[in-house]
Amino acid sequence: MKNMNNRQVHVPGPHDRDVADHCKKLGVDPAEERKLLRLLGKNAPLHEIRANVSPKQPRFR
């Protein structure tokens, strides 16, 4: 009998996230959230959201 190696491997791609929920989680201001929604749409991969969010201002004590 032949040795059959028919194993299927599932490589997960980037999961789409809700942009509005992620902005609320990060504490992004509403103007920035509207910009991201126009740019990316309602759902986008996490790396796209992180790449397009402007960095927060540092909070000094």
Order of SSEs: EHHEH
Give start-end ranges of low-pLDDT stretches.
none
Summed over residues and divided by their number, the pLDDT gives a mean of 85
Biggest sheet architecture: 2 strands, antiparallel
What is the 3D shape?
A: elongated
Strand content: 5-15%
Terminal residue distance: 73 Å
Strand order of the largest sheet: 1-2
Q: Can you tell me about this structure?
A:
The protein has 61 residues and is mostly helical. The chain has a domain at 16-52. Helices cover 43% and strands 10% of the residues. The chain contains three helices and two strands, in the order E-H-H-E-H. A two-stranded antiparallel ribbon has the order 1-2. The longest helix is centred in the middle third of the chain and has 11 residues, at 30-40. The chain is elongated, with a radius of gyration of 19 Å. Residues 1-21 are annotated as: Disordered.
Features of this protein?
3 helices, two-stranded antiparallel ribbon, single chain, 61 residues, mainly alpha
How are the SSEs ordered, and which strands pair?
Layout: E1 16-18, H1 19-26, H2 30-40, E2 43-45, H3 46-52
Antiparallel strand pairs: 1-2
Would you summarize the structure shown here?
The protein is mainly alpha-helical and 61 residues long. Helix content is 43%, strand content 10%. The protein has a domain at 16-52.
